[in-house]
Amino acid sequence: MFNEIKQFLAPLRYWRELPLRECGDRPALSQKPNQSIPPIVYQTWEDNLFGKSHLEEIQRFRDLNREFDFVLLNRIQRDDYLKQQWGNHPIYSIYQKSLFGPMKADIFRYCLLADRGGFYFDISKGCSAPLRQLYQKTTEALITFEPHENPSLVNSPALQHLQYPTKLVLQWGFGFAPKNPILEKMIENICHHYPLYQGKVFTSPKNAIRELTGPIMFTKAVHEVLAQGPLPHLEQCGIDFNNFGIFALKGSKVRYMTAPAYTKAKNRPIVL
């Protein structure tokens, strides 16, 4: 009830950000670089409508990366893509049964970049440095770390290959060449662990989502791949993209006017 009241009152809180404005795709404005990771940034949200300040910040991020295509997919486009490209894979059924938008966005990013390669950034996030400053042309995987410790850390041969072995690997922004083993392992792990979460009610759905489709499971996938040995052409970009990462773009909370935040949910299942 509290979240419903907040959403009802949002126009009063955010009146300076209204009306909501549409954000479309943007093709590259300068010559694209020849590199292993396709120079395209994918993002997703439930719709394409954003407040004034948030839209300005999105545009600023795009202007820093003029040689990249930017593609924003809404919920319908996201659903269509998963159905068409992954409809015969177990991950699609899990996607359909996921009860929170962030879970679907998690699954979408792994599947999309496993297919096509490119970069992914949450629509509320950004980077204050041009992306091309963070990796080499031959880089096939760009990852960075959260400042938070990994709550599921286990001793593994992978630790010697990680820049910050005790930290969570961040997954609101990254880049991969197609068919990268980290993404393939992540999709495999979600399918494998799904029965442990199916229909179960969680006091904190947010924490359960972080475990199954978010940074905890993503960190596990990275560790499992690197336990087999160092991954060629892997770029590890410090904490929060060497402190250039932007965790919350100005005005980004206005987007919850059209899709309520999941972080306050209590005592609910995350997937059926």
CATH class term: Alpha Beta
- Fraction of residues in H or I helices: 25-40%
The counted number of beta strands is 13
| Estimated structural class | alpha/beta
> Roughly how many Å is the radius of gyration?
18 Å
Q: CATH topology, anyone?
A: Spore Coat Polysaccharide Biosynthesis Protein SpsA, Chain A
Low-confidence stretches: none
- Give the name of the CATH architecture: Alpha-Beta Complex
Question: What would the principal axes of the Cα set say about the shape?
Answer: globular
Domain count: 1
Strand content: 15-25%
**In DSSP terms, counting alpha (H) and pi (I) runs of 4 or more, how many helices?**
9
CA(first)-CA(last) distance? 23 Å
SSE ordering: HEEEHEHHHEEEEEHEHHEHEE
Q: How confident overall, as mean pLDDT?
A: 96
Largest sheet report: 7 strands, mixed
Outline the fold blueprint.
Layout: H1 2-13, E1 21-22, E2 40-44, E3 49-50, H2 52-64, E4 69-73, H3 75-86, H4 90-97, H5 101-116, E5 118-121, E6 126-127, E7 141-149, E8 167-169, E9 173-176, H6 181-197, E10 201-202, H7 205-212, H8 215-226, E11 234-239, H9 240-243, E12 245-246, E13 268-269
Parallel strand pairs: 2-4, 2-5, 7-11
Antiparallel strand pairs: 1-3, 5-9, 6-12, 7-8, 7-9, 10-13
Helix pairs in contact: 3-4, 3-5, 5-6, 6-8
